[in-house]
């Protein structure tokens, strides 16, 4: 029937698509199993990619040779760079996407990958031989042999949908739950838990009055996610913003006694940073209104995603309350919001490769690890797919550190700290966020991707041109001087202090109210060079400005990262008995014995392990 595979990927959501594409791109034979071939890369919740910290992750996926950035660009209907009023470490790209085109582009990308085969079926169990995975079992009785397996089950593991007082099994609306895997994994010794997420209603855009809302257009000059030759948008669809009112909140409260959030039907933890509307008005009772983002689902569809109105209240309560929102007075609902509970496996049971500690060759990626969000799932899938391939081919693992990428932060947080609520990435989670900007992900990661076969020589030539162009322009600006006669008119116009003698152009770019455009207007040689570089690589001038303006901060953070990374090279013996280290605190002994960190650096980040505990470990290891 089906041949033996190097890698079997279970689930074709964002994690599964990235995992299958990466492993096959590197040379593994891959089978992607999905319960429904028509829902590959389905955007189960909002039709958007990126956002604060999440946009950095998409850029990193693209720099590593993944598909999410390309697919996002090909299906985008709007582009915005968020947080532009803050420093560049906070700038975050975001696209509004055409839901149907996003799924189509991902499927086409996978179908163009000759190493990927597809199979529509439900995976109901694993084939395990000793302490190693050997394949999967399906609902129609097939046993498919594989050298490694990547589970990316999303919200489908024993999924239970809540809508008011109604409950029914399902992985998402209209699709059944996946059964069998949780029970088998528990039988193998894994610890599991339950989590909850939710989604808002979708409505008919023809029934809305946009004149009562604030228009939210895309950027005047839209950028894009991918560093490849995808095209930026030439036209965009606007989103809109409106607000709930005290009347809306009162109408919602009428259904609280039938809400699974409050009547005890839902017992698991939901995403703290994306609460339901009933949770918001309950927790923030003093707030008179909450923001609602009105987001189109695509170029041509009339379906609208009501962002900010996630709910599991009865459908009649949902529509009644929604019609009290300005612009929604005559709203027609396509499908109600609902909550869903599902099984997950605490990620402290994984290695940094996302391979499980208990079963060799078995990898977990996405919401099965307790995360929430397309981007968080996609980057885990990418890393699991890469490492599944490398395991099969007996190659060294591929692991990103916390100073390499947001992806490294996310995985280290999961493995080291675990999570008891859906994990979402924020810029605040990254201690080196000045280094991990969205604009330099290609410089940071594409050379690494090239060494493992995920980035081509053309990709490297593009990155090398960006690096060399940036260095050339920085050198020119540091060399070229400017007189008070040339500089002061522009400085005065910008409200910046005047100069009294000739200075280098690079010294002026560090002023907060002076831009690269201003500096280039003062110079001659640098301006000519910049114009030439812009025609070759549009990111060069932008990259040069950031590197010069934040040079001191970047250098300081690089020094801290190098110092901390030295702890990552100090390995801890696998057989160490922490209970015999009398100077360790009792909490450190317990936490370290359970987690079994592999380096001093990882041990230092374990909750409950103090700096004095780290010193004890270093002394024990002779360091």
* Silhouette: globular
Largest sheet: 7 strands, mixed
Helix content: 25-40%
> What's the helix count?
21
CATH homologous superfamily assignment of the largest domain: FAD/NAD(P)-binding domain
Number of strands: 22
* Gyration radius, rounded: 26 Å
Strand content: 15-25%
CATH class term of the largest domain: Alpha Beta
Unreliably modeled segments: none
The termini sit apart by: 56 Å
Structural class: alpha+beta
The CATH topology of the largest domain is given as FAD/NAD(P)-binding domain
Task: Give the key terms.
Arc Repressor Mutant, subunit A; Elongation Factor Tu (Ef-tu), domain 3; 21 helices; 4 domains; seven-stranded mixed sheet; 17% strand; 36% helix; FAD/NAD(P)-binding domain; 623 residues; six-stranded antiparallel sheet; 22 strands; alpha+beta
3D architecture notes:
36% of the residues lie in helices and 17% in strands. The protein is globular, with a radius of gyration of 26 Å. By secondary structure, the protein is α+β, with helices and mostly antiparallel strands. The chain folds into four domains: 5-200 and 342-452, FAD/NAD(P)-binding domain (3-Layer(bba) Sandwich); 202-338, Elongation Factor Tu (Ef-tu), domain 3; 457-557, Arc Repressor Mutant, subunit A (Orthogonal Bundle); 570-620, DNA polymerase, domain 1, CATH 1.10.150.570. The strands form five sheets. Strands 1, 2, 6, 7, 8, 9 and 20 form a seven-stranded mixed β-sheet that branches.
